Amino acid sequence: MYLPILQIHSEDMPPYAIVCGDPRRAKAIADKLQNAKELAFAREYRTLVGEYNGVRLAVVSHGVGSPGAAVCFEELIRAGVKTLIRVGTCGSYHADIPAGSLVISFAAAREEGLTKQLVPSGFPAVADPGIIAALEAAAAEVPGSGVVRTGITVCYDAFFTGVEELPHRKYKQAGILAVEMEIAALYVVSSLRGARAGAILAVDGFADEDLSEVYDPHTDAVAQAVEREIGIALEAIARLARSE
Ligand code: R1X
């Protein structure tokens, strides 16, 4: 089957995929694989395949924001991908989860618009518990320091705010750890289409106004956290493959 937006063929696709926003990050992840090969680079969607510890997987970029990312997730699942792990970045709500920390998201508050067009408002955006367990186990094994927290994240469409206020304060009070822009789409589309998904995020700043500082996602601390989450996601996929 040909998937016209990603411009890939299902015959070339393995059942495991790491997904990330940035096409350059997709290439950097694939550079850690054996026998890596780029299959397509269409719009923001860059698809590479390779092997990690004998497990074939794809690495695919989905761009910024839920609608575009959902197109990617839908086509990957149509192509036969059954396990998707997002490796991304997020803004933290809490002083004890500073830039350079990692957040494993087991569920997302659906504050974006895309999933409202797919499912009723009561439908949860939840990860697969097996993937979360694999990410946590891998996080305990992969060397490196820094905070690793598991919890709920919130997914918005707006990166820059307008005149409307986003409900940051309420979500922070309710215990949400961090903010990003694609996990609701990933979890809802995966649930709907019978795939399983999880996500690990590197904190690149604070999303809470009280903690806010100049936004600079290009620091060594963030780069190290991104490296670490990539290692964790690859190890999690190896663990999941071993257990099947
Ligand atoms: O999910 C968010 C979005 O893809 C995290 O970083 C991007 C915006 O810079």
Plain-language structure description:
The protein has a single domain (2-242), classed as Rossmann fold, CATH 3.40.50.1580. The protein is 30% helix and 31% strand. The protein has helices at 23-30, 66-78, 129-141, 168-173, 183-193, 220-242; strands at residues 2-3, 8-9, 16-20, 34-42, 45-52, 55-61, 83-92, 102-110, 125-126, 148-155, 178-180, 196-206. Strand 4 and strand 5 (45-52) form a beta hairpin. Helix 2 (66-78) runs parallel beside helix 5 and helix 3 (129-141) crosses helix 6 (220-242). The two termini are 25 Å apart. Bound molecules: 1,4-anhydro-D-ribitol. 1,4-anhydro-D-ribitol (R1X) is lined by residues 21, 64, 88-90, 159, 180-182. InterPro entries: Nucleoside_phosphorylase_d (IPR000845), Nucleoside_phosphorylase_sf (IPR035994). It holds the Pfam family PNP_UDP_1. Its EC number is 2.4.2.3.
Please trace the helix and strand order, writing H or E for each element.
EEEHEEEHEEEHEHEHEH
Biggest pleated-sheet summary: 5 strands, mixed, barrel
CATH architecture: 3-Layer(aba) Sandwich
Overall SS class: alpha/beta
What topology, given as strand order, has the largest sheet?
7-11-10-8-12
- Output the radius of gyration: 17 Å
| Secondary structure: helix percent | 25-40%
**What would CATH call the homologous superfamily?**
Nucleoside phosphorylase domain
Query: Could you say which overall geometry the principal axes of the C-alpha atoms support?
Result: globular
The parts where pLDDT drops under 50 for at least 5 residues are none
Oligomer description: single chain
Mean pLDDT: 96
Supply the CATH class.
Answer: Alpha Beta
State the end-to-end distance: 25 Å
Strand proportion: 25-35%
- Give the tally of β-strands: 12
